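Researcher: Here's my situation. A collaborator sent me these components and asked whether they could plausibly form a single complex. I don't have experimental data yet, so a predicted model of the whole assembly would be a useful starting point for our discussion.
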Amino acid sequence: MSDVCTRAQEALAEGGVAALGLAQREHVVDCAACSDLLLALNALDTDLGEWEAPPLPAGLNERVAAAVAAEPLDELELEMEPAEEAPARGFFARRRAAKPSDDPSNATPPPLRRWPISTTVVAAAALLMLAAGTFAMQFGGKVKGLFETADAEIDSVDSNLGEGWRPGRSSRSPAAAAPAEEAPVVADAGGGDAFAGRLNRSSDEWKAMDPDGDGMRRPTSDLSGKNFGDVFRPQVRRKIQTRRNKSDSITITTPSRGSRRRGEGRAPAASPAPPPEAPRQAKKERGGLTFSLDEGPSPEPSVVEEQEEEAIFEPEPVPMAERVVAKTPQRSAPADSSLSLRTIEGADEQLPATLEEKRRAVPLGYAEDIPADKDRDRSRLGKQAAEKGLLALIGTTGDTSNSALSDLLADADGLAADVGEALARQAGAPIGGRYPGADGKLDLEALRWLEEGSALDVPTVPAAGYWSNTYVPGDPALRRLESRVRGQREHRLARGLEADALDAAAHQVRQPFDAPTDGALGVYLHADRRGITEPTRMRIQVGLQGTERRSGRRPAMNVGVVLDLRGQGSARDEGAMRALVEALVQARDLGDTFSLTVAGRPGGAVVPAQQFRYGPVRLALESLFGGTPTEGPTLGLQAAMLQAVAAVGATDDPNRPLGSSVVLLVSPRDLLEDAPALEAIAHRSAVAGIPVSVVGVGADADHVRLEAIALAGQGNRRVLTDASDADSVVDRELSAASQVVARAVRLRIRLAPGVKLVDVLGSHNLDAAQSQQVRQAEQSIDRRLARNLGIQADRGDDEEGIQIVIPTWYAGDGHAVLLDVIAPGPGPIADVSVKYKDLVRLNNGVARASLHLGRDPRPPGPLELNVVKNEVAHELSVRLAEAADRAAGGRSADGAQVVRDARTWLGSVQRAVPALRGDRELQRDLSLLTAYAHALDASSGADSNQYLHDSLRLAARRKVLAPLAEDSEGAP
Amino acid sequence: MVEEACQHQQSDDVVIHVEDRLLLQRHLRGDERAFDLLLERLGRPVWALICRSGVRGPNREDVYQEVFVKVHRAADTFQPDRPLRPWVFAIAINTVRNFHRNKQVRQLLHLGDVPERAGRGPSSQQVLEANESASWLDERIDALPDAQREVLLLCSVEGLPMKEASALLDLPVNTIKTHLRRARLTLAADLQRRQRAEDREAGA
């Protein structure tokens, strides 16, 4: 146990939570042993508190009283001794002199004395008082001043803590702004109370301003009924949001208190107070009102800066007015239509008050040539929008016939009504529902997508049990597609045909997970929004990030290779398998033990471990692939696997690292009826400490079933396209063990009471048999590492909540698990714990995170937007895969339409969330989709369609999977 | 006088009932009611301390009686400016120690256990054993070393401040802290083992 742990645990045992310092509290949160002790001590205190003694027997006190009464008392002399006879001993001196023996009842009772007061004592007391009076007269003023200064400092600190932010004092420019008390205060536009003068508020007022304690650490010694997310909540870093207006003054916006402006570098008295509640000055176009697409909800156009956090997304200024073509699901916009799509902002005091002005308000944009007799419909909808304070959207087509327009109006009206209801509940905030803080200018597609994702009346599932692992290092499907697309591209280029590497532009969203420095794994938990005020459906994201450090050079390996030579293989495939075995020979190092077993041809265990050298291997390969008949049994695939597992097991050294003994199944063919048995063999082998990896050879390999075998065997999945890949496949497989930083990663996600689970994106609930397999696999790793590396075994118990077990984690890998949940309101949402075997520090590691949402109305920040982008990436991946399916079979036009729809959808989502408008990753995705649409339009022939089909599928997978470092191409 | 001065004074964060202190003085002056009142106020906590200190069966009543007889005998040694309860607890602690020492000596001398009187009804042991959690606590706290058990009972159960416990047991405060820390760590570890065993049984 470390010194930190020892001290923290001792402090806990002595004085409880109150005895812990701040750093110790943080340590306890992160340390499993200390956390467990805290819980145990709390339980102990509860038990001790409830520990009832048996009742006093009836009549016992009477018997005691009778026994006491039977013993006479000796009279004691209670008069005081004369002062001159008794020395002036102090209280403690008297105690020391009359120190009781072990049994106080046996001690000689000291005489009862009263404390004599001597003349000396009186004189000393008088001198002391005189000195105190003199000091007070001379230095009292200074002392008073010190206290006043201290008071001011305390007030200042209180004000900062109560606000949760530091006005004008960012971490980068501590002296940027004028002191709070010097700034002129202006009435805010949002309707909150104005600050006045010096920030001097009582603690109750501060508490009222920050009821949820967001941004404030609030430890408590009362642990009953709380989890660590409640007790040790990570401090939310407050950011300063500044808005730069045209006069370059800084306006600071608080979450609930509106805004006030202070000058920057100017005398506060000289800065003119801006007009209160300055409404947005939109560009005027008709009836005294102007319309604009891209202004934010604040009174002034601005660029939002985040001063305390590095912004991943940097929104760029957008033009004041923009024409956008919108498309309803049923209609397509003619190319030459004078379409205009405009949106308005709702809840604006500048909306006209008179009926005439309302009628002419035209809250919905229309093409200029709409006949005047449509004013009736227009004003009706406009009035509806104005009354509800709606943000409404409508698209028009060049067809201005009544029926077409009415249909469009009906669509928009229905959607607008739904949105309006939500907005009305939001009481004037920007668009509610999924993305609070967006300016509400939406396109229909985005609106529908957002509304679907916000629906509360959806079925939910229990947030418990084992779920499938979605972390797939070195996804073989990705490699297979990559090799196929590469091959096709080269083929097309050789024929002078176009073969753009469109898929190279598809990448997983860059994850903002910092690599941990104090352990192998770090965990992060975020939602797609900062706060909620009512039952809300949202996405929460569990982020896992491995440390960059690798665990050293590769260990001595013990590898049993099984070659599937059933049937007649192609020359290319056989050449690839031969190259693989030769590469193994070349890679063999001191201490390595390799063996070769074949299935489908005579020979069986053709090269035992003791003979695995160049000569014997060369001879065996000649026999197998050269047509020379060999002696020995002809094994089936299952028998060959069993033999290989036995051979590796016979030479397995339990003291070697887990993963150093492995069986490698190399197959170019269908596995068909052998697959279930092979899975079972792989699982048993893995449980025994020998993982099973697979290598799919060529285009006809049964990659799906091979994947299942590798999953069951806790091994790796490789793809061998041809002989040229052999060296790299062997190198990766042999060095895989050294790239592992954590094993037996157990992810536990607990949803807070009242929070319901809709889905874990990309995963599925495991049945009882699968769950048992997962447990066995986990415990086998646990036992093995306890034996090998001395990492204490600590597995075997199921936990409440969603459980995901990941056998292996590689250095530098990051992964996100997205959950679709419904939360009843503000409060705790979820907490996450990750237990793992840390192969870097050789101990049991644990990482925790918790999520609590208050009523924070601010728009999403970078972390929240990352969740949004991951979800968008997931949706985009689905759409790309759908386009790929359409493109297969010669329906390139259908595929192109799907791609166009995806582009429209992505564009509208980007516009719906202001912070995403300038996002480079989404811009790249939009360009990618445009390129795919063009390519599909121009595609002709089955060859081209197949290429685009594979390319689209590859792009779909790349959007959600992180490549291994050596495979990255064109990474951002 | 006592009834008029029904007030509390603070001393080392321990509220001293003025009445309790003066009850002993009243008893010394012959007030027959005073000791009965003392038994009413302090009897229950002393009884609980004895029960939790590993004294079983009817021996508890004997020890209880012995404690208060000693209180009566040592009444004139009590310093009224100090709280009464720790003083009485000190007598109780020592009496329990003597009891255990005698029991051990008798066992070593093969004289058998301290003779028990015939039960007067359902024994305390039976009532206690009906409560599973309490019997586990009894067992584990019994297993603690004497010094740790005493400190735990005084500080964690009875809620005495460490300074009071230090004075009562005549040990330095740091020693008290050490005993308390070790006792709580031991019990916490026992509790964790017990919970893991229960979880395994529940899962099996």
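Model: Some features of this prediction you could bring to your collaborator: Chain B touches chain A through 62 residues (CB under 8 Å). DSSP finds nine helices and two strands in chain B.
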